[in-house]
Write a structure and sequence with these properties.
Length: 318
């Protein structure tokens, strides 16, 4: 029997956590109360000590609903889509064996797409070439390497952030190993067969979403984001570490926070980057077979519509 898996995608500040707690939490009034465990599909919540800037669910929220793949790496370590798919596969089996529904939820569309459709069969890494590319990147910077990728594989470049050094170098490595752009190693357009997926994509009015993102960033600063970043810098965190490339952290390395208006400038950059990232993430989940698009603008209606999707898809649990 295929394992039923709920997949929920939405960018930051859309309301994923609130929805999950309302439907699956231990204090829920839903039929699905305490029937699920959540697997976080967030590429930066995997890092320990990056709490405020990644908007991790609180301790209380994690007590209300079990969350996996949070705080599993040091911010000096790389974590990628292949790691996520491998970890999520293992967790789905374990959660189902415990008699619970696996719920994969997050805002990293690239991770979710690869989990749903499978990883592309790109060539294995070549250590010599990888070190050569890393050396050039240290010398000339990620933006220079991004420009190189833009020339040889514009389609891949369009899906990679200019500061995402790991994915830039991987795409260049694939091109120089094979003579073909990484984008030519396309992901399947059919769902993986080992799971019975119910995929839900949450949407909000764009202006409302952008306002919520700006408010979320304001809240991060109120909760102590500046103090969190200063503590990380004091223990040696620097711009080229994987975790420090996250929105909410990388902006602190791009200018003088001590200058007049420096903190407000950084806040504005985080808000701008977060809005831009939210828009970009939807490109990764376009064309997912069988996906349900639900509006999150009316939260009461959202809970009702989400539960209806679950009832139709999870008859085995009733």
């Amino acid at each position: 029997m295929r394992i039923p898996v709920i997949v929920v995608f939405a960018p930051t500040a859309t309301g994923k956590t609130a929805l999950a707690l309302t439907v699956f939490g231990r204090g829920s009034h839903s039929f699905f109360k305490d029937k699920a465990e959540l697997i976080s599909a967030d590429s930066m919540q995997v890092y320990r000590k990056l709490d405020i800037g990644t908007a991790k669910p609180s301790f209380e929220e994690r007590q209300e609903l079990v969350h996996h793949l949070i705080d599993i790496r040091d911010y000096t370590e790389q974590y990628n889509a292949a790691d996520f798919v491998s970890d999520a596969d293992l967790l789905c089996r374990e959660i189902w064996e415990r008699g619970k529904i696996p719920v994969v939820a997050g805002g990293t569309g690239f991770y979710i797409r690869n989990f749903l459709l499978g990883l592309p069969e790109t060539p294995e890494s070549d250590e010599t070439l990888r070190e050569e590319l890393k050396s050039r990147c240290r010398e000339k910077g990620a933006e220079f390497m991004y420009g190189e990728l833009l020339r040889v594989d514009p389609e891949s470049a369009a899906k990679i952030h200019i500061h995402d050094e790991y994915r830039i170098l991987r795409a260049l490595e694939v091109f120089y190993l094979t003579g073909k752009p990484r984008s030519s190693f396309s992901v399947s357009n059919t769902l993986r067969t080992e799971y019975d997926f119910t995929t839900v994509i949450l949407q909000r009015d764009r202006n409302v979403l952008y306002r919520r993102i700006d408010e979320r960033v304001e809240q991060m600063f109120s909760l102590g984001l500046e103090e969190e970043v200063r503590a990380l810098m004091a223990e040696g965190a620097c711009a080229d570490m994987p975790g420090m490339k996250a929105i909410g952290y990388r902006e602190w390395f791009s200018g003088d926070m001590e200058s007049s208006g420096g903190i407000e400038r950084i806040k504005g950059e985080i808000q701008h980057s977060s809005r831009k990232y939210a828009k970009k993430q939807y490109t990764f989940i376009q064309g997912i077979p069988g996906a349900h698009f639900l509006s999150a603008d009316d939260e009461t209606a959202l809970v009702r519509d989400f539960e209806e999707c679950l009832y139709r898809s999870l008859k085995i649990m009733q």
